[in-house]
Amino acid sequence: QVQLVESGGGLVQPGGSLRLSCAASGFAFRTYAMSWYRQAPGRERELVARISGGGSTVYADSLKGRFTISRDNSKSTVYLQMNSLKPEDTAVYYCYVFTWTNYWGKGTLVTVSS
Predict the structure, then answer these.
(1) Which residues touch 65 (CB under 8 Å, ≥6 apart)?
(2) Residue 66: which of 18, 12, 11 has the closest Cα?
(3) What's the CA angle centered on 32, arms 26 and 34, to 5 degrees?
(4) Contact between 109 and 38 (Cβ < 8 Å)
(5) pLDDT by residue (tens digit) across 57-104?
(6) What count of Cα atoms within 13 Å lies in the side-chain half-sphere of residue 19?
(7) Are 86 and 14 in contact (CB under 8 A)?
């Protein structure tokens, strides 16, 4: 049974930082690309970043330089370091993997507000 469990969300002031974690289980983690998506209120879910099993990364153009995705295959965990946060980064952040089908975590809420 594939499980993705996000953590690390919360309330942060503009300009602050957060690190999200996604603990994965139920599949050969090191083999698969892992992704972070986000969905802001009233908007569609969008890709934030993706990391391959070998560590190659892809980012949404608008987030390059502020967000960093990484993974620890020994812990079956993928991370999203978010710096210089802006109010428009407020969203539910989801962990995602495609193995033989789509799997999503339940999400973690990030609120950027003063």
Answers:
(1) none
(2) 18
(3) 95
(4) no
(5) 999 998 878 999 999 999 999 999 999 999 999 999 999 999 999 999
(6) 9
(7) yes
* Residue 48 structure tokens: 């934030």
Q: How many of the other CB atoms lie within 10 Å of CB of 9?
A: 18
pLDDT of residue 83: 98
Q: Is 107 left (phi over 0), alpha (psi -120 to 50) or beta?
A: left
Q: Encoding tokens for residue 63?
A: 């987030």
Residues in the chain: 114
d(CA 84, CA 67): 9
CB atoms inside a 10 Å sphere around CB 103:
18
CA-to-CA distance for 14 and 98, rounded, in angstroms? 33
Split at pLDDT 50, 70, 90, the class of 110 is very high
Q: Which two three-digit tokens encode residue 60?
A: 């949404």
Query: How many of the other CB atoms lie within 10 Å of CB of 1?
Result: 6
